[in-house]
């Protein structure tokens, strides 16, 4: 479904991503793990066209999307849930969710999908009229994921969904992420908690200093001595 070839991202003279190649098959959850500064977030931003890559190609469902506008990437079916959540603090929960459907005009289906998001996240239903800026961090993460789902994506890009959250909230967020995946969503996941990422995904890539250094089945990488030493604290 997603084919990334020779992706290169730079900020001035700093090389953030160094000609990486990877793919995500339809229906998979694939994790991208690595230390801070490894280039993971830059990769997601380049795929979603939030930033411009210096080189390389991105194909989605067989179509080259390397040079299209970010809103057209959403229309093609890729939705990014950014690091830090990025909710609209002065809008209500319901208004934030409807903002996720800004590329759509099928009003009846939008309202139906809103109910679907509330099924995934009952807590958002309870706070439907509440301003997003008054939600807890975990609730804002739920809202950010729900907002992305409102675009009816074929693929979700999740950037550090557990960041800054209490363990109990991380558990709840990942229960829903797994359910969304089980319902057929293709997911590319960046997650600082490498153990959680590998336990949740089918395949994974390890990034170091802007390069992919390891890849394979998540279960195999979970048992890899190098991965365990570098990312699992063993």
SSE blueprint and pairings:
Elements: E1 2-11, E2 14-24, E3 29-33, H1 40-47, E4 55-60, E5 63-64, H2 70-76, E6 78-81, H3 93-99, H4 107-120, H5 122-126, H6 137-149, E7 155-159, H7 167-182, E8 186-190, H8 194-200, E9 203-208, E10 211-217, H9 218-222, H10 225-231
Structural notes for this entry:
It is a single chain. With 234 residues, this protein is an alpha/beta fold. The chain has a single domain, classed as P-loop containing nucleotide triphosphate hydrolases (Rossmann fold, 3-Layer(aba) Sandwich), CATH 3.40.50.300. The chain is 38% helix and 26% strand. It has 10 helices and 10 strands. The strands form 2 sheets. A 6-stranded mixed β-sheet has the order 6-7-8-3-9-10, sandwiched between helices. Helix 7 links the parallel strand 7 and strand 8. Helix 3 packs parallel to helix 6. The longest helix has 16 residues. The model has no long low-confidence stretch (mean pLDDT 94).
List keywords for this structure.
Rossmann fold; 6-stranded mixed sheet; 4-stranded antiparallel sheet; 10 helices; 38% helix
Termini gap: 35 Å
Q: Helical segment tally?
A: 10
Number of spatially distinct domains: 1
Q: Summarize the main sheet.
A: 6 strands, mixed
Strand residue content:
25-35%
Note poorly predicted spans.
Answer: none
Top CATH class? Alpha Beta
Number of DSSP-assigned strands: 10
Assign a percent range to the helix content.
Answer: 25-40%
Described by the principal axes of the CA atoms, the overall outline is: globular
Strand order of the largest sheet: 6-7-8-3-9-10
The named CATH superfamily: P-loop containing nucleotide triphosphate hydrolases
């Amino acid at each position: 479904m997603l084919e990334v070839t020779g992706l290169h991202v730079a900020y001035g003279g700093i090389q953030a991503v160094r000609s990486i190649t990877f793919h995500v098959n339809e229906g998979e959850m694939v994790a991208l793990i690595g230390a801070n500064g490894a280039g993971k977030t830059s990769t997601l931003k380049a795929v979603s066209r939030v930033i411009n890559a210096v080189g390389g190609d991105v194909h989605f469902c067989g179509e080259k999307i390397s040079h299209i506008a970010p809103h057209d990437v959403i229309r093609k079916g890729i939705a990014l849930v950014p690091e830090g959540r990025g909710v609209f603090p002065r809008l209500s929960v319901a208004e934030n969710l409807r903002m996720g459907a800004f590329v759509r005009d099928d009003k009846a289906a939008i309202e139906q999908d809103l109910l679907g998001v509330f099924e995934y996240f009952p807590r958002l239903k309870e706070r439907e009229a509440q301003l997003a800026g008054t939600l807890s961090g975990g609730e804002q993460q739920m809202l950010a994921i729900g907002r992305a789902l409102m675009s009816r994506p074929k693929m979700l890009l999740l950037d550090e969904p557990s960041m800054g959250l209490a363990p109990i909230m991380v558990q709840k967020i990942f229960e829903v992420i797994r359910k969304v995946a089980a319902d057929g969503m293709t997911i590319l996941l960046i997650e600082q908690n490498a153990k959680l990422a590998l336990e949740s995904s089918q395949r994974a890539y390890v990034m170091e200093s802007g390069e992919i250094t390891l890849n394979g089945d998540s279960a195999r990488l979970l048992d890899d001595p190098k991965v365990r030493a570098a990312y699992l604290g063993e």
